[in-house]
Amino acid sequence: MTFKNIFSDNEVQFIEYYRRFYDYYHTPQDVIIYGTGQNGRRVLDYLKTSAIRVIAFCDSKALDNDRTFLGLPVLSPQSAVNKKCLILIASTWYFEIEEKLNALGCANYMNVSLLAIARQPPVANIEEKLAWLRARFDHDSTAVLQDICSALISREKIQMQISEYPQYRHPAIALQPAAGIIDGGACRGEIFATFDGEVEGKTFICFEPERANFEYIRDNFSTSEIGAAVFVEANGLWNTETLLHFMDNTESGANFNCAINSSGNTTIKTTTIDSYLENNPLKIDLIKLDIEGAELEALEGGANTITTYKPALAICTYHYIDDLWLLAEKIYNLNPHYKFYLGHHENSWFETVLYAI
To answer: CB atoms < 10 A from the CB of 44, how many?
Structure first.
């Protein structure tokens, strides 16, 4: 296989792992999902378009036939192993689950906790996707990509190297004192700490549809207090102006992972970057997006701005595994003059950021 000549060992192992998942996805067979949390729910939904037939869930604390999950029986680990079918692990505790399955003499399993959290079915040409990214990354970004591949195939708890610069503040992003910044997913106003010492004179447009977060930013980061123009918008960013279901902090359990979700407990209004700027003609120099999986749609909604004005972009890629290449491809197709960088900002799977400058 010629791709082995250009990739590191970790990348080659990830490609082979991903291909294995691709084959499973397209092979008619019975499968048990190990995990009855949010990951298990999302994996079941993802597999609905596959050739796989999910026959049950498994939970480490389950007693056989004591309950169901999403209409399917929940089995004990021993009973799941006794079914002698493929077990797909959908849990952040995958490393402990693998140890349990190994102790039960089971080798027919695969951790899909991250692979099956994707926008699209697994692609047949994963090596081409990685090669395309590699061709556009510098040395440090390629090292981040290799670290991601290593984490995806690891059978231990994920630990990743952290980039040396602050999140969203890649050193290649040069901003003037009066720069305009769109903060998509403003949460509790962390962007102001990112720009500590250089906030004054800038314009911040903070999009935050979660009500408690919106009110926190509005009440704690006024223009008069921090010396910057601050506009706080309660709309979510999307590719059209509409109403969407939304999971707020009363359902998500935290202020930082509220998201557009078809089963959300409330609704929000959305807008697009382009329509907002048409109605509010401001010069934008940086767009930051950390909006819990809505990044691709928000980029679509900012297509004219990105194509025409080429603002710097700092876009989170970690919410879906295929956002690693889909977001870069989207940006490149809108404006091929960007240079791409990849940074990672937490010692876990989270906080990988694609920079387009």
So the answer is: 21
What whole-number distance in Å separates Cα of residue 323 and Cα of residue 310? Answer: 20
CATH architecture type of domain 158-356: 3-Layer(aba) Sandwich (3.40)
Q: What is the C-alpha separation between 3 and 136, in angstroms, rounded?
A: 17
Confidence (pTM)? 0.94
* Residue 279: band (very low, low, confident or very high) from pLDDT cuts 50, 70, 90: very high
Which residues make Cβ contacts (< 8 Å) with residue 163, sequence separation at least 6?
Answer: 140, 144, 343, 344, 345
Q: How far apart are CA 139 and CA 351, in angstroms?
A: 19
Classify 42 as helix, strand or coil: helix
The 10s digit of each residue's pLDDT in 44-53 is 999 999 999 9
Whether residue 172 contacts residue 141, with contact meaning beta carbons closer than 8 Å, is answered with: no
β-bridge mates for residue 232, sequence order: 206
The SS3 assignment for 136 reads coil
Task: Quote the CA–CA distance of 234 and 80 in Å, as a whole number.
Answer: 46
User: Could you tell me which of 345, 221, 340 has the C-alpha nearest to residue 290?
Assistant: 345
- Which range among 3-12, 139-148, 173-182, 298-307 shows the weakest confidence by mean pLDDT? 3-12
Give the whole-angstrom CA distance, residue 141 versus residue 31: 36
Domain positions in the chain are 2-124, 158-356
What percentage of the chain has pLDDT greater than the value 70?
A: 96
Task: Identify the bridge partners of residue 68 per DSSP, sorted by sequence position.
Answer: 73
Does the domain at 2-124 match CATH 3.40.50.720? Answer given as yes
Same fold, 2-124 and 158-356: yes
